[in-house]
Design goal:
By secondary structure, this protein is mainly beta. The protein has one domain: Porin (Beta Barrel), CATH 2.40.160.20. The chain has 1 helix and 9 strands, in the order αβββββββββ. An 8-stranded antiparallel β-barrel has the order 1-3-4-5-6-7-8-9. It is elongated, with a radius of gyration of 34 Å.
């Protein structure tokens, strides 16, 4: 009888163990890491380059005034939700130039700059934006490349673009288009005074580093 009882207990133990093995094991749900949204707030500096094409004007005619450009940028962004507000300035060397009257009259700009506001809407690392503000630049008008006058112009600029935060830490890249009108100034050459000015369309690409 004792042997029978032991055998029964052993059988019950085996059945219990088999039943326990059949019970599914509950596992903790997988935890997926979600990267935080990119934040555009902060100060940045960078470089930019591109091409400008436009017109130089005097009292009676206008003519093409085109050239490349390269320079530096600095700015600051504040992000509120998806809205990004910013201020930005740039100064560029340029070789914009042109001529009229068979080369008798020539024009040249050696630098341009701007001080602007920016408004953008952030899609995480993508930032489309519009921008506008004051534009600055120098103009030089010459007759037969000898008799010249040079002025600094102040006008306005407006445009827009797209900036992208690169996977590399703190670097962003952008493309931008702007239209700028630099106003007119009175130039005096060979005792004759008349208004002169220039305007341009600019396509730029740049890269910035955020601090």
């Amino acid at each position: 009888m004792i042997r029978s009882g032991i055998a029964a207990l052993a059988a019950i133990a085996c059945i219990s163990a088999a039943s326990a093995a059949d019970v599914p094991v509950r596992r903790a749900p997988m935890q997926h890491y979600v990267a935080p949204a990119y934040n555009w707030t902060g100060f940045y500096i960078g470089v930019n380059g591109g091409y400008a094409w436009g017109k130089a004007t005097d009292t009676f005619v206008d003519w093409n005034h085109n050239g490349g450009m390269f320079g530096g940028t600095a700015g600051y962004n504040w992000q509120f939700g998806s809205i990004v507000l910013g201020i930005e300035g740039d100064v560029d060397w340029t070789n914009m130039s042109g001529s009229t009257l068979g080369g008798l009259v020539t024009t040249k700009s050696s630098w341009v700059g701007s001080a602007r506001g920016r408004v953008g809407y952030a899609f995480d690392r993508f930032l489309p934006f519009v921008t506008g503000g004051a534009a600055f630049g120098d103009g030089k008008i010459c007759i037969v490349q000898i008799f010249c006058d040079q002025k600094t112009h102040v006008g306005w600029t407006v445009g827009g673009g797209l900036e992208y935060a690169l996977p590399m830490h703190n670097w962003t890249a952008k493309v931008e288009f702007r239209h700028s009108e630099f106003g007119t100034k009175d130039y005096t050459i060979l005792g004759i005074t008349g208004p002169g000015g220039f305007k341009s369309n600019t396509a730029l690409a740049g890269i910035n580093y955020r601090f």
